[in-house]
Amino acid sequence: MQWLVVGLAVFLGVHSVSIINRRWRNRMVARLGEWSWKGLYSVVAAIGLACVVYGYGLARQEPSILYVPPTWLRHLALVLMLPVFPFLLSTYLPGRIKSTIRHPMLNATKFWATAHLCANGGWHDVLLFGGFLLWASIDRVSVKYRADAPRGVARQGGLANDATALFGGLALYALFVFWAHGKVIGVPLLTVSN
After folding, report:
1. For residue 31, which phi and psi values (nearest 5 degrees)?
2. CA–CA distance, 177 with 193 (Å, rounded to integer)
3. Which helix (H) or strand (E) holds 111?
4. N or C terminus of the chain with fewer C-beta within 10 Å?
5. For the whole model, what pTM was predicted?
6. Cβ-contact 14, 137 below 8 angstroms
7. Taking 90 as the threshold, does the pLDDT of residue 12 lie above it?
8. Is residue 87 a contact partner of residue 101, using CB atoms and an 8 Å limit?
9. Closest CA to 107 of 141, 79, 74, 76
């Protein structure tokens, strides 16, 4: 579990720089240059993510169960995951979805984490998904109070971007539910009994 804790501290820590000290972050960008800062940021985040994946994989081998979710919560998790991929895509496809949701990546993270907390009850699950849920909630609130945060979101791209985000996101959702979650994560979501 140590690798998971270290990975979360590094990954969520680097993603919390703007929450904790936006001025320091801006000074570092000015000193290093935008691309150097982004490169350093990306390397540190990638190291953290690798530790999270490795640590979570180790923790899954010898799980310590905190709670056992009832079946209906697992079904609820599938419903909670529905907006996740459309929100993620709308982050990069500005339109009405993005202007309405405002911070679709953070909202996608909150839905994703909540869904997984509904379906999984191990300590490692609570640490991973609870950590992401807490971080995304704090970051979402902090955005309101940042002096240099943009006010309002322009509606660029319009209907075409919204349609791409919605239908592309739902297609990705279906791909994950019926195939990729089992292949990539190792946990099939839907099993067909004979």
Report:
1. -75, -45
2. 16
3. helix 104-119
4. C
5. 0.89
6. no
7. yes
8. yes
9. 141
Q: Give the DSSP H/E element, type plus range, for residue 24.
A: helix 22-32
Q: Could you give the C-alpha distances from 182 to 24, 59, 129, 153, 178, in angstroms and in order?
A: 42, 18, 18, 37, 8
Residue with tokens 């640490």: 127
* pLDDT of residue 148 exceeding 80: no
DSSP for 47-97 reads HHHHHHHHHHHHHHHS--BS----HHHHHHHHHHTTTHHHHHHHHHS-SHH
The residue length of the chain stands at: 194
CB 153 within 8 A of CB 94: yes
In single-letter form, the type of residue at position 124 comes to: H
* Paired tokens of 22: 């936006």
Joined tokens for residue 44: 């540190």
pLDDT single digits (tens) 103-131: 999 999 999 999 999 999 999 999 999 99
Residues whose CB falls within 8 Å of the CB of residue 106, separated by 6 or more in sequence, listed in order: 136, 139, 140, 143
CB within 8 Å of 40: residues ≥ 6 apart: 32
177-193 pLDDT per residue, tens: 999 998 888 888 876 54
Q: Closest Cα partner for 87 from 181, 185, 189, 170?
A: 170
